[in-house]
Amino acid sequence: MSDSVTLAVTDHVPMEAKARYEALVEELHRLFEAQNGFLSVDTVRHSRPHQVEYTVLSRWSDEAAVTQWRENPAIREKLTQIEAITGGPAQHVQAIGLGIWVDHAKGADPHLPPAWKRTAMSVAAVYPMLMLLMALSAPMIGGLPQFLQVLIIVIVLSSLLTWPIMPWLSNLLRPWLMAK
Fold first, then answer.
1. Residue 31 · residue 73 · CB < 8 Å
2. Which residue spans within 3-120 are E strands per DSSP?
3. What is the chain's alpha carbon radius of gyration, rounded to the nearest angstrom?
4. H or E element: which one contains 67?
5. Whole-angstrom Cα distance, residue 54 to residue 86?
6. In the predicted model, is pLDDT for residue 38 greater than 70?
7. How confident is the model at residue 120 (pLDDT cuts 50, 70, 90)?
8. Would the CA dihedral through 120, 126, 131, 132 be positive or negative?
């Protein structure tokens, strides 16, 4: 199992501060890229009439890399500037390996369910959605080469798994997933 750490950070930004926030976050991500152990960063935006919700998913090689960037003075300064826009610290969720998929109780230390349960949950999410997407998309993309059909289905399926399917399924199956 991978020891990589995924950090999900959620900020709520007023519409009038959107451009400034995005500029600061872009600078922050450039600082991340210079850090040892940085793997990747992705941002999901959800616009509402009065604010934008940003969820930033950053991946790090291990716990030490996460600790190291938090000690960087330039990064701390950038976070202070961001917090001035958002009104305070962001919501953080940290998980190791595939743990980001699992909905953790507030305040609880994240722990992963056994691998076989995570695999069963993934199959329960992927298989029916894959079959449904294949059936629904056939009339629209059936004439394309197979590699393009698969690419389109994978893009749609991955988007649906990230949100809303896996968060909903992990919440639904939480008693079973977390049972010891």
1. no
2. 5-14, 38-47, 51-60, 91-96
3. 19
4. helix 63-70
5. 11
6. yes
7. very high
8. positive
Count Cβ atoms below 10 Å from residue 38 Cβ, excluding itself: 19
pLDDT value, residue 170:
82
Partnered with residue 47 across adjacent β-strands are: 52
Q: Which amino acid is at 61?
A: S
**Predicted TM-score of the model (pTM):** 0.52
| Closest among 123, 121, 127 to 172, alpha carbons compared | 121
Which residue type occupies 131?
M
Cα angle, residue 92 at apex, residues 90 and 93 outer, rounded to 5°: 160
Split at pLDDT 50, 70, 90, the class of 103 is very low
Is the pLDDT assigned to residue 13 strictly greater than 80?
yes
Contact 96, 104 (CB under 8 A): no
In whole numbers, what is the pLDDT of the chain averaged over residues?
A: 84
With CA atoms as reference, report the closest residue to 69 among 30, 33, 124, 32. Answer: 32
